[in-house]
Structure formats: C-alpha cells, structure tokens
Amino acid sequence: MTNPTFPRGMTRRSLLKGTMAITAAGLILPAHMAPAQAEPKKGGVFRVGIGHGSTTDGYDPGLWDQLFVQTFAAARHNYLIEIAADGNLVPEIAESWDSADGATWVFRIRQGVTFHSGKTLTPDDVVASLNHHRGEASTSAVKPYFDPVTDIKVDGQNVVVTLNAPNADFPYLMSDYHLPVMPGTDGKIDPTSTDGCGGYVVESYEPGVQATLNRNPNYWKAGRAHFDQIVLLTILDPAARLNALMTSEVDTIDQVDPASISLLESRGVAKILSISGNAHYCFPMDARAAPFTDNNVRLALKYAFDRQELVDKILAGHGSVANDNPIGPANRYFFAGMEAKAYDPDKAKFHLKEAGMDKLEVALSAANAAFSGAVDAAVLMSEKAAAANITITVDRVPDDGYWDNVWMKKPFCASYWGGRPVEDQMFTTAYQSGAAWNESFWSNEAFDKLLVAARSELDDAKRREMYQEMQRLVSFDGATIIPMYNNYVMALANTVATPEKVSNNWNLDGFRCVERWWFA
Amino acid sequence: MTVLVSVIVGLGLSFVIGLAARAALRAAAPARHRPMFRDMPLTASFGLAVILAYVVVAVLAPVIAPFGEGEVLGDQYLPWAAPHYLGTDKLGRDMLTRLIYGARNTVGIAFATTALAFVAGAVLGIWAALAGGWMDQGLSRLVDALMAIPALIFSLLLLTIFGTSVLTLILVIAAVDATRVYRLARSVAQGIVVMDYIEAARLRGEGNWHLIRREILPNAMAPLAAEFGLRFCFVFLSISALSFLGLGIKPPTADWGSMVRENATLITFGDITPLLPAGAIALLTVAVNFVVDWQLQRASGLKE
Amino acid sequence: MTGIWRMIGQRLLLGVLTLFIISLVIFGATELLPGDLARELLGQSATEETLAALREQLGLNEPAPVRYWNWLTGVLQGDFGVSMATQRPISELVGARLGNTLFLALYAAALSVPLSLLLGVLAALWRNSVFDRASNALALTVISFPEFFVAYILILWLAQTGLFPSMVRITGATTTGDLLYSAFLPALTLTLVVTAHMMRMTRAAIINLMASPYIEMARLKGMSPMRVVLRHAVPNALAPIINVVALNLAYLITGVVVVEVVFVYPGLGQLMIDAVTNRDIPVVQAIALIFASAYVLLNLLADVLSTVTNPRLMHRT
Description:
The complex is a heterotrimer.
Chain A: H1 12-16, H2 20-27, E1 45-50, H3 67-76, E2 81-83, E3 89-91, E4 94-99, E5 104-109, H4 123-131, H5 143-146, E6 149-155, E7 158-163, H6 170-173, E8 184-185, E9 188-189, E10 200-206, E11 210-215, E12 229-234, H7 238-246, E13 252-253, H8 261-267, E14 270-275, E15 280-284, H9 295-303, H10 307-314, E16 319-321, H11 345-354, E17 360-366, H12 374-385, E18 390-396, H13 402-405, E19 415-417, H14 423-430, H15 445-456, H16 460-476, E20 480-486, E21 488-493, E22 496-497, H17 507-510, H18 513-516, E23 518-519
Parallel strand pairs in A: 1-12, 1-13, 17-18
Antiparallel strand pairs in A: 2-3, 4-5, 5-7, 6-7, 8-9, 10-11, 11-12, 13-21, 14-21, 15-19, 15-20, 16-20, 22-23
Chain B: H1 2-28, H2 34-38, H3 42-59, H4 61-64, H5 95-131, H6 133-148, H7 151-162, H8 166-193, H9 196-203, H10 208-244, H11 256-263, H12 275-300
Chain C: H1 2-32, H2 37-42, H3 48-58, H4 64-76, H5 90-125, H6 130-143, H7 147-159, H8 176-182, H9 184-209, H10 213-220, H11 225-254, H12 257-263, H13 268-278, H14 281-309, H15 311-314
C-alpha cells in the first residue's frame, strides 16, 4: 500500500532524523508548486474573518484553544518544527533534530534569528519556552506531553530533551501550536508578551474583535510571509462571515456553513477550499454505564444509522464516511482496508438479540457547541435507528457549559476532535485506559499494550501493523461512534492565491495561511 | 418585480378573505351578537379568519399534515413540487408538515406563556399602584432589578440552571415578560387610581380586589390589550433568540422560531425558504393585532 | 416642586439598593451555573491537574462569600478589578465598548423615537384610514421578524448592493462621520425593531382618550382634529408613552447582543455573553451594574416625567 503522506522506504534512521536534506524542497522553494504556477507576489492587506475568538482570550500560549488565537500565533511566532503542507516535518527554529534511541532528542537551534524586539534568539529561549508547559505549577493544556520528559538542557547551540521512554513521534509533538518559541528572561518567558520571531509584528490586538499585524522586515525565511499587513477579524455569526466575504470586507473566511456552500459557489464571487483531514465528529458512549457495557449494544448502534446520509446532509458532502476510526485518511498508518459498516437494521437487530434484547431505548445528549449540526445529526440517527427497534431520544442541551456539564458526564453525547498528526497522540489522548480525555471511558488491555509497544517500535512495517490492529479494536470494540470525517471548508476571494497543496493538518492551511498564501 | 407582484396578489387575497369572513360571520353569529359584526372593519374580519384558520390547523395538525412531524423523507432542500409542496428542509423533512405542526407547538406555547405573564404582571402591577407606599416600592424595585438584567442573558441563566423542558421554557419566558407587563400595568393604573371615581369607590368601602376587577381593569384594558397583542408575538421571537444560543424547544418538535433560525443563512442568497416560518409568524402577528385594534376601537366607544 | 426633588432623592437611594440586589442576584446565578472560569479557559483540554493549578492561580479556591466581599469592597473604593480571564483592568475592557454601545443606542433612538411618535400620532389622528392600516400592518410585520432576520434582509438589500458596509470596524482612525455611515445598518435594524412597539403604544394611548368627555367637549367646540389630538389628547397620554419609550431606550442599551453579533459591532452585549460563558464573574458584574444603572436612571426619568405631566399624581408623592 502506498502512503501519500510519508515517503516509502523510510529507514530506522530517517524516522528519527530531520534535516535540511529531506525537507529543503518543502521550505524555500516548495516542490509541490507546479513550475507553471506564478511566483508568489508580495503586498496587500490580507483580511481573514474567523468564526472564533472571545473577549476573554488571553496571551498565555498554554491556554490557546481556538482558531483565532492559533492563527494569530502562527502569524507572529515560529515553532521548533513546522508541519509542511504535505504532512512532513520541516525545520523551523530547529535547524535539524536527531535521536539515537528515540529517548534522547537533540534539536539544533538556528542561528541569526531575531525577535521583533531585536533580541537574538538563543537555545536558552527555547528551553524557557518549553519549560513554561512543564512542571507542577504549569497550567498548560499540553502539560501531559511533558510528563515523560525528565530533562531539558542547553548543549552549545543544541537543546537536548530526555524522555523516560523512547517515543519515535516526539518531534511531531514539538510542532504543536501551544509551543511557540518566545524570548526568555532568567529561564522564564513572559506569557503576556506578543513578542515573537514570526513573519508579522503585532500592531494592535483587541481580544474578541481583531488583530492587526505588519510584515516583519527582518524575517529570516525567504519566500514566506507575502502580505504587507494581516488583519484577523472575529466574526462569530456564519451568515455575517458570508456577508463579509461577499461584500469584500474580508478576503477569506473559515467554517463556511455547509448549507450555503453550493449557493456561494454558484455566485462566482469566491472559491471554496475544502480540505479533507483527520478532523472528525463523534458520539462517545460511556463504556462503564449500562447498556453500553455490552459491546453488542455498541455494535447495534453502530449499524443502526446511515453514515452517508450524515455526510450528505450535515456536511453537504464536504467530508467522508468514517468507520468509527479516529485515525483519518491523512494519517500515516490509516487503515483504509478495514471492513466498512453500512446502514443495516437487520445486523443491528442481530446484535441486540446477542445482547439479549429485542428493543433498546437510549438518550443522546447533543448541542451545537459540540460541532455545528450535532443536534441535526442526532435527529437523523434517531430517525434511522427506529427501523432497528432502537429508540434514540434526542436531548438537546444548552451550548453554554456543554463541555463541563454534558461531555464525559452524560452516558451518550456528541463530541469532536480536530484530529492529530500522529496516531500515538490521538490514541494516547482519547483512547488509552484512564486517559484524562478518554471520553468513552473505554478500556481494552490488548489496545493499551499495543499502544505502548508501538511508541518505541522503530521498524516502520511493524509499526504500521500495530497501529492498524489498534484501529480495528477501536472500531469494532470501542465505545465511540465516529460517523464522519469533516473537511475544513474555507471560502477565499478570487484574488487570494494558495500553493497547490494546502495543509490538512488543522484549518486555514495549518494556521499558516498568513505565511503561505498571497494575492495573485 | 416579483416582490411587487406578490405584494399586490397578497393584498388582493387578504381583501377577499376579509370580505368572505365578514359575510360568513354575519350569517353565522347568533342574532344578539350580529350588530357587533355589522360594523366590523375588513382588517378585523381578515384577522379573525386567519386566527381561526391557525387554530383549526393547530388542532387538526395530525390529520392535515401529509407526513409525520419528524419523518425524514428524502434529500435536503428539494424544490417545491408534489408530494412536497413546499419542498424539504435541510434534513429532508417535509416543509409543509413542519409548518403545520409548528402552528400547534408554537401557538400553544406562545398563548400559555403570554396568558401567564399577563395574569401575574397585570394583577401585581395594578395592585402595586393601588396599594402604593411600601408594597409598591418593594415590588417595583424587585421588578426593576429583574428587568435591568438583559432578557436574553437572564433567560440563559435561568434555563441553564433549571433545564430546558417546555414547562421551564414557558415559565422562564413568562417570568421575564411579566416584569414588562407589571411596569406597564402599574403606570396605567397609577393614572386611574387618582381618578375621582376610584376615590368614590374607596369611600363606599370597596375592597382592593373589587376595585381592581370592577373599576381599574376595565379602564386599563385598552393599553393592556395592545400590549397583549405584541407580547404574544414576542414569545416567538424569544424562542427564536434562545435557539440562537442553543436553547429553545427540543428536536424533533417543530417550532417556527427555531425554523427561522435554522434556515436564516439562506436569506443571504435571496432564498425564500426562511421566509415561510417567518411569514407564518408575521401573518399571525398582524391578524392578532388587527383584532385587538378592533376591540380597542369598540372599547373606546369611538364611532368613526 | 419639592415633592419631585424628594422623589428623585428617594429613588436614587433606592436605585443604589437595586444595584446591590442585582449584584447579589448575578453573583448567585453565575455561582449556580455549572463550571467555573478555570474549566472554561482550559475547555476540552482540561485535566484535574491543570484545573487545580489554574484555580489556585486565579484565586477560585476561596469560598464564594469571601470572593463576593472582596469584589464588593473593591467596587466601593471605585476599583472594578481586573478580568480574571485576561488580567486586563475591567475599566479599560469595558470603557471603549460602553462608548460604542451608547453611540449605537443614541443613533437608533435618534431615528426611532421621532419616527414612532410621528407615526403613532398620525395613525391616531387618521385612525382606520388606509395610512393607519398600512403603517400598522407594516410595523407589525417588521416586529414579528427576529432581529437577526431583519438584519440579514437589510444586508441583502443595502449591503450586497454596495450602499452600506455589512459590518462595522472601529479602529483608532475611525471618525464620527465614518461611524455614522458604517453603523447605519445596525442602527436601522434596531430602529425597525423598536419602532412598532412605541408607535402602537402611542396610537393606543391617544385613542384611549379620544372618547373622554373633555375631548368630546373640545371637538364640539369646533376644534380641528389635529389640534384636539396635539393639545388635549397627547399631553394626557404621555405617561404610558414615556414609559414605553424608556423601556425601549433601555432595550437599545442592554439588549442588542444579536445585532452586535450580526454586524460584528464591539459593544457590551457580546462582552457580557463572553464573560458569562467563561464565568468571568467580575466582568459580568461590572456590565450588569452598568446595564442596571442605565435601567434605573431611565425608569426614574420616565417616572419623573410621568408625574410632572400628570399633576394629579403629584399630590400622592
């Protein structure tokens, strides 16, 4: 099987090593850009209307949680490592990285990079930036990444991170949006500062309203950050976002309302960018609570609704059917050949019978806070399930307080995941027994063992086998219904140009639209 | 152009409905009520006809509706053609059926809510005006305090705390509305309690309850009725605004307020689907208020 | 006249009491809401450990009465504190937005109050005429559409055709003239939303008086209908009209969050919703007090004006 996102024939060494040699093409002169395509042009004010942002947004990188702050961060900051549009890791502040055993990681820090304030970036700044997320008192959301880290230290121009066990995917974690490189003083960063070393310098920022940034004249990257100015605007209402684009108040919007995609396309005023990634919508069941303790009940529910109908009606076709698998087609070890689950009321009835029931009644709690269209999706599932003698009562709950009051509290509810670039990260976060965000409270010994083993397995073929077995376990034994992968759907004014390949790792070209796109 | 044509057609149609309804009412009314309908303006007969039609639709919803309330029948956004005369919604449910069931749910809830708000608000308001002094101040300050919290945020707080069943929805919106009614009732009643006939009644030794029922309420009826007509329609809007925040009536129950919200983005492209539930609300609003106006006119004793 | 001053004094004192009650109600209600600031800030990524660390840092571990007391003593000394979520001073956070909110409210009021009074008086004067019926039906139709719906239609007609901008952007360089232009659509939306209510109350209040003996008298004396309405009916119908105007003005200040969202207008409503969903209690409290003050003052004004225009009420106060 060929894999679109990871070059074949990777050796053990190359799995652990990132250098300019592999990735130069992806950075300075993107190889995926067809020669015929025009060179990116410089200039213009790029205005993005984003459906997120709140007046309570802060500056602390450990608390970033949505698209506005993520894109704002990508505009002003650099990271150790960047995930290129094709899914490969490319150097950013780390010039290269290497590990002999997967447990000790050496990152070589780029020289000659300066912060907006004029300060020169040193390995000490990197250590301070990482340490912000580490330790007892840290409030960072990515603190769990650093739990296995026993030591971070400077060695000349290198930063050396030591783990308590091998992890072949550690560099992927270092590309996380929570981990920008910020200037440090006495080993600490100032989490309220907007100073960074990215392509744009902050001119003004009003949380929940807008951020304006100007091009960094001293930016170290060539062929990046083409706009003179970036304006990020919070526009929460989907119709208001559409209107802003159609009246040329903004040049790009995210999260286009599925119902209006075809209408917008037919207008010809904008182009739709629909990117399939690993993001998925899901319905976790509490595997500890009856009747979901019985895998036959879980399977009955998995066969009792029409996945294609959800893709057609909730996503307007901008997505694809998922087979209760949190690992998406954009992941390296995606198990594409797994047996699919079609809508089959008879099979659902069969599994009910196996569980010793002839009918089933469950309540499904949903709010559109979980994902846009969650309540409608629940209604559609409930309609189809009736044919299998399953009564799903849709309990619409308030958006406000959803994640605190319903998610992981009610036995059957709606949820979503942005998808993770690495399988290990996804499984460790939400499927390992006892994980903090294991939303279905599913626990499977065989799965847990495989997960730990795969992390330090350095043979690619074996790793693939292990991850595929884990996907099969989650799909056919797990307690999470995952009906669909949702595309990232953006709308761009006709004047906006993008590289041929747009990243499927997160929305807005992996938040990097500000740096990778230009005005034609 | 199409807008103009449909407005003209609509006006013509309303005119015919009004005429027909007036004729029918005159013929059908018992002899002693007949004079009331003789001078009835066309607007009022039109209003009565519409209200009657809504009530019939609401009561007979399961009989009239071609499909089941939450039944998913086919593709989303089907065009207007048999068997889906008004097309389908975004989940592929029959739009006409949803509208018919919506009449039942929405009108029922709106009526219950408004009635509750008026009983509570008007009685307390008039009583406060009549009693004056300490009681009046205490109640009025409490109402002030409750009103000073924006309605949407107040409802959000209450519904999040108490849950979102239909009953709590009715109680919460009624409570919020009652404060508005209280204020109006109190200020109207304040103008009345200083009238000579109230003084006279007091001197006769009439009790507060008698004063409210026999002397004040009849004289305060006009502004209260006008307010009722509007408040009734505001309930639809409250439900619609609440569905903006993810609260409101639970699916798959159909209600017009949420239906407007669900389809609202389509209006950006000039699609008229969202106009259907909004139009249903507007038509009822206009009808109710036409009848209220007619009664106001009768109550005021003005002839022309 | 001293009665009036005494009443104002009394009412101001009571207003302070009202504010105190509101601060208690809001604090209590937000305490009852499930979840807290730490939980909301961390969102889906919260773990017990990070929650505990953040709660400690934010001072959320103190019991509720202590936190309320700390807040109250701060406010009494004129210090509204800092936003718990952003650590920015609340006065700074609220200041600019309060200006925006008042601007939009005044803009909409300047359009809607004269319009609705004029329409109301004319409708009462020419009652049952085509004008009366048409303005009535039109007003009712507009009022029965939800605010966001009116806004979308205005955008469809007036913004997509390029006449007015579909959203408001306020930067340091925005002049009042720019703002009047770019905020026209939100102001117009609000005007449409509140006009019907005020217009209908005006009409009803005037018609209610038209059968009174003294109006009959004036008419019998041969006064023109216009004079009868303006000189005799309107002054006596002022109390309910003033009340409904005050109610709608207060609404324009406190209840426009939906319009703010649709037109991306940075006002207080959106700030309050954000603060409620994030459980940022000091910010919620500060805005609630601002809204409440607006309410109390407008209602006081309405009561004073009603009393002044109805001499019979004077004797009771």
